[in-house]
Design brief:
Blueprint lengths: L5 E8 L5 H7 L4 H9 L4 E9 L2 E8 L2 H8 L12 E3 L1 H13 L10 H15 L5 H20 L9 H12 L6 E5 L3 H11 L5 E6 L2 H10 L3 E6 L3 H7 L2 E4 L10 H4 L5 E5 L16 E4 L2 H70 L4 H31 L3 H11 L34 H7 L1
Parallel strand pairs: 5-6, 5-8, 6-7, 8-9, 9-10
Antiparallel strand pairs: 1-3, 1-4, 2-3
Helix pairs in contact: 2-5, 4-6, 4-12, 5-6, 6-12, 7-8, 7-12, 12-13, 12-14, 12-15
């Protein structure tokens, strides 16, 4: 596949969208959505990532306008303000930010790296990953790994959800325990994810909208299932740990709900409260509210924000390196096309010349080698300066020269030319066109025939 084209992306994430809107934008699975995108005319590559907190799609097309058309119906039922459209460079930067954890609910969280890799494998399985997306996603994953090894962006507890799980781990042995998470919003999602990294055996996720709870349960590796809100009292009697995080204006759990719960740790993350503080008087129930957790998160939140500044600079540096590599590949495409075209002409003219010389007086092997070497030398010397000029053009963002070279020297070049960064003015000394009366060198055949 020719290295070229531009990336167009679209995102519906927690930054601008609600849980409902994200769920609406998601498809059944990433692989089938990639296949759907690849089936659209003009799409060379495609990549989709879907998590609890984002639904994003990227396509590579020759023209950015075509990419925008393909993704225009990405989320038709989601309000415009929840959809973010990205051009080529914005898509590259965004993927780096996602991999680094800067776009996560919890800055620096590690889970997104595995999700990006899984989505990449799904897209690759159906032919969605070509050279452009491979380079971009590989670079993004590299940035994500650097961010976590060279900075403290993933150090410590930064969310109330993870703080609640840490507190639970200090209060009791989590091995083989059952946890109930009430609420499938941002905080409930974080709590479920944090529990997923512990020795808890079973996680129950309760929510008014059961599909939301099912979505979270499907995202974690621990044995998990969804329950409806009216089943919370029964689920609470089974659970050893209960973490609540809903937006309910009234109590979700009260004394009567937990009267038969036995030894149960209850942590209320909601504001206003989900749990009646009176449950602390129920025999066997240990109760903590949000005030007990705020102090746990503040220090690491500040540490991660400081690390994020370093990651921003890291992304800037890696972004420039990727663009430089992109420029070199574009120049190499043009240079390769130039040499292939010259080699075709040389071979044709050389065969004709040698045939004529054979017909005139015959040729020795040594003479044949001399003529062939002369033809090779001419090609090498004639293309030496253009090769340097094309590489200089890439370094100077002079895409007009590279694009023109692709058209001139690649006889197989077909279809639309890919979009390129806005072309600079021609380099000094480069003519706009060849004058009609310009001296054009004779071919080797012409010279030999004239002799």
């Amino acid at each position: 596949m020719r290295y070229g084209g531009v990336i167009t992306g679209v995102s519906v994430s927690h930054t601008n969208a609600t849980v409902d809107e994200i769920e609406t934008a998601c498809r059944d699975d990433e692989r089938s959505f990639v296949e759907t995108l690849l089936a659209r005319e003009g799409v060379d590559e495609a990549y989709v990532i879907q998590t609890c907190n984002r639904a994003e799609a990227y396509v590579v097309t020759a023209k950015a306008a075509r990419g925008r058309q393909v993704l225009a119906e990405f989320a038709p039922d989601v309000r415009d303000g929840a959809i973010v459209e990205m051009d080529h460079e914005e898509s590259i930067r965004h993927l780096m930010r996602v991999a680094a954890g800067l776009e996560s609910l919890v800055v620096g969280e590690d889970q997104i790296l595995g999700q990006l890799k899984t989505a990449m494998a799904e897209a690759r399985a159906v032919g969605g990953i070509g050279e452009m997306l491979d380079d971009t996603l590989t670079k993004a994953l590299h940035v994500g790994e650097r961010a976590r090894t060279e900075t403290e962006i993933n150090e410590g507890v930064v969310s109330l959800g993870s703080a609640a799980v840490k507190l639970a781990g200090k209060t009791l042995d989590l091995e083989g325990k059952t946890a109930l998470v009430v609420g499938a919003g941002e905080m409930g999602t974080l709590a479920a994810r944090a529990l997923d990294g512990t020795a808890v055996e079973t996680i129950l996720v309760a929510n008014r909208t059961v599909p939301h709870a099912e979505h979270i349960a499907s995202e974690i590796s621990t044995d998990a299932s969804a329950v409806a809100l009216d089943a919370i009292p029964a689920a609470a009697t089974e659970a050893d740990i209960v973490i609540t995080a809903t937006g309910s204006p009234a109590y979700v759990l009260d004394v009567s709900s937990l009267a038969d719960a036995g030894e149960t740790l209850v942590i209320d993350l909601a504001q206003p409260r989900d749990v009646d503080p009176a449950v602390d008087d129920v025999t066997g129930v240990t109760f903590h509210d949000i005030d007990a957790l705020e102090a746990v998160t503040e220090a690491t939140r500040e540490r991660r924000q400081a690390a994020a500044e370093n990651v921003h600079q890291m992304i800037d540096d890696e972004f420039e390196r990727l663009l430089d590599a992109y420029k070199r590949k574009r120049a190499d495409d043009a240079i390769s096309a130039m040499y292939e075209s010259a080699e075709t002409v040389k071979s044709r003219e050389l065969d004709t010349a040698l045939s004529k010389l054979e017909a005139q007086d015959g040729l020795t092997d040594e003479q044949r080698e001399t003529v062939t070497a002369m033809a090779d030398a001419l090609v090498g010397q004639l293309l030496s300066a253009p090769t340097k000029s094309l590489r200089d053009a890439a370094a100077e963002d002079d895409w007009t020269t590279i694009q023109t070279a692709m058209q001139l020297f690649n006889p197989q070049f077909g279809g639309e030319l890919p979009d390129l960064p806005e072309a600079t003015t021609p380099r000094e000394g480069a003519p706009d066109e060849i004058p009609d009366d310009a001296d054009v060198p004779e071919t080797v055949l012409d010279r030999l025939s004239n002799d």
